[in-house]
Every structure is written in structure tokens, then in C-alpha cells.
Amino acid sequence: MKIFLLNPYFRKAEAPVPSLGLLSLATYLKQNGFNDVTVCEPGLSGISEEAAIEAAIRSDIVGVSCYTDTRFEVIDFATKLKKKNPQALVVLGGCHAGFMSRQIMGKYQVIDYVVDGDGEIPLLKLVKGETKDKIEGLYYRENGAIKNVSPRIRRRFPTVAIDYTILESELSSWKDMEAPQHLMSLKHLPVIVSKGCPYDCSFCATQALGQWRQAGAETIFNEVRRLRDNYGAQYLRFYDPLFAGNDRDIIRFCDLAEKEGLTDVKFRIDIRADMKFDVLKRLKDVGLAVVGFGVESGSDKVLADSNKRITRRTTFEAIENIRKLDLWMIGYFILFLPGETDEERKATLEMVSYFDEYNLQYFKIYPGTDYYQRFIRDGLMTDEYWFDPAKDREMVYCRENFPSCPYPIDKIIRTTIDNSSPFWRDYITKAEKSTI
Description:
Strand content: 15-25%
CATH superfamily of the largest domain: tm_1862 like domain
CATH class of the largest domain: Alpha Beta
CATH architecture of the largest domain: Alpha-Beta Horseshoe
Number of domains: 2
Number of helices: 17
Helix content: 25-40%
Distance between the termini: 38 Å
Structural class: alpha/beta
Strand order of the largest sheet: 2-1-3-4-5-6-7
């Protein structure tokens, strides 16, 4: 059984991070005896779509991550692959595919299956040839009808201990490009120890993906030690939407790390602005060097409408706490949220100077979010928008996509680029050029 797993970011500037989900799938398959597994990361390797098709053409199963901004590339890839190898089974996963499972199966015959939720167990069962109607979370066709066994499948952590040798060449020089310069000489690795998020911000679909699940303190400790001892990791970039959701487990992890001498690995986490100072301090004691958190907006009105559950004052308190600990601080911002005025946007942009690095994004609509449900309810869009190639692939909230929006796409992109940090200005410019 030959399996090919693809993260279809063929625009190199847009994928600075490997898909930890695909690495988890590949590792799990290998652990269960299926060793002929390839993970393809065009965004890291620079491989073209044509080369990826040739690499996948002799595979029995081709699994593809499908995100909102790659949905058309996914279908294009699958269509071209099927022309060359009609027998290859194409399986989609990822958050966009999960939310739009039935619609995707109904519109695209080149897609054989969609997995809604965690993919390790459904994909393994599919590879083993188990009966489709016994595979939880799998959408499939039977006599022209689209069927699935049950809604999204969720596993409890601990997670799969990822085999990073699967992408050894791509990860050999990988760096967290937002980290401070003095940490760039260290060996970097990306890692994740949770799924979901306990919060439900209106612009984010993470909470809708399922109940928040985080590994326990011992599992996190063992993973950090494994990555240090087995792969020489000196700096870890945790990609969890919220690393420190459970204070008790985090303190326990810190106690273990201190007791066992695991304090020589520097790491970065994402937190909420209302994280307790004493928890943050304990994390610094055992290696925390970089902290990122979502500011989103400088307007309390916009924050409340987005269900962020923080205020402008909360953000400034977080800034003060992080500065006391002399940690490198990264802020995440979203411009042009619905209802945001020019003055409110100005207030947001005035806050970026407090951060060592910052990431400005313009607001985009995603399936599964509260904003998307509001737009559906208000008649601003339907599910059909996701299948219209004339629509912007990122579904930016702009006048071209939504006539009720007062701002054209050019103003939104220009404002974001002009106010971005030097690193992100260059990144966004390259990404925009790659879509032309």
C-alpha cells in the first residue's frame, strides 16, 4: 500500500510551517506497519504542482489537506491526478474539508472520501481496507448517495509522537522567523500538544472543531525531552492556539522540567492576554523565551463584538507583565473586522509599537465561525460562495466579495502591508505576488 500525503501550498511564500497534522498521520501509519508513506510539503521544498502529481501518481491513497485558501488548488490537483491515475483514491482532510464535507462530496467526483475530524484512525482503517460504513468520521458515496457514519471523530491526547525524520531535509534548516535574532542559531522544531480551544472568538473556527484537548504535564514534559534528546532541538515553537489553558498542568510541567533539569530548551508559546503573571514567570524559569498573544483590536467595541473576552486594558496589563519578565513579545492583530471604524483601526495600529514583532492580518471569513453564521443569517453569503472560483480564494471581507463592506480589497491589502513589520511586509508582498 503506497500512501502520499500533500499539503498543497504551491506558493512557496505562503507556507513557512510544515503541516504537523500530516506528519502525525504519517507517523501513525508507520507505527501501524504502513511504511510506504510520503509527506509532500511544496511550500517548504519548492516542488511544483506538476512534480507533486508525478510523485503521487503511483500511490494507492492520496491524502490532501484542504484549507479555505487552498480549496481550489486541492480540486485542481485531484482533477489532474485522476486523469493520470483514475484508480488513486483521493481523501481530503483539514478544517475546511471537515466543515464542508457533504458539499464537497456532492460537487466534486474526483474526491473519493472526506474525513471530518481527527484523521489518524479513519485513515488507518481506510488503508487497512475496513468496511467504509464502520469508519467514524468518513464521508463516502454509495449508490450515488453521500453517507457518513457519524459526525467528527475526536481522540483524547496524548498525541502521536511525531517522527520528524519524515521531513528531515525540509526541517533541517527550519526556523521560527518571528523569534529574536539571538535565538536563530539554535536548532528549531515546530510542535503541538493540544487540539481545539476553550474559547469561541467570532472570527475563529478552532473552537468549532471540537472540545479543547491538551496533553497532561507528563506528556508535555516527555515530548520536550524527546525532541531535545532525539532530534537535538534547542528551541521549540508550540503551535497550539492556547498553550496554557490549564494552569495546574502547566505548573506541574514546570515543576517536572525544573526537577529533571529540562531547562535548556528555549520555547515559544501563544497565550491569552489575561494569563496569570505567576504562571508566565514559572514558564520563563524553565525556558520560555517568546510569547505571542492575540490583541486583535484596540477597540473595546470591536473586541466585544468578536467575543474576544478581553479589553484594551487587559492587553496593556499583559504587555506590562511580559515586559517585566523580559520576554520577546509578539502581537497578533486583525484589521477591518466588521463594524470597525477608521478611528478604531487607528487605535489598533497605534498599539503595534509596544511589541517586538507583530502580525497584522486583514479579516477573512471561514466556515464554522460565528461571523460566518451571522453572514448566512443576514443573507450576505451562502455555502455556495466557497465553490465559486470568481470569489476571492481567501474570502476577504471586502467590497468586491460583500457589497455592504465599505472598503475595496486594494485598500485593505495596502493598509495591512504598509503597517506591517518589515518581516511580515515582505512576506505578505511575496504571498500576494504569488497569486497573480
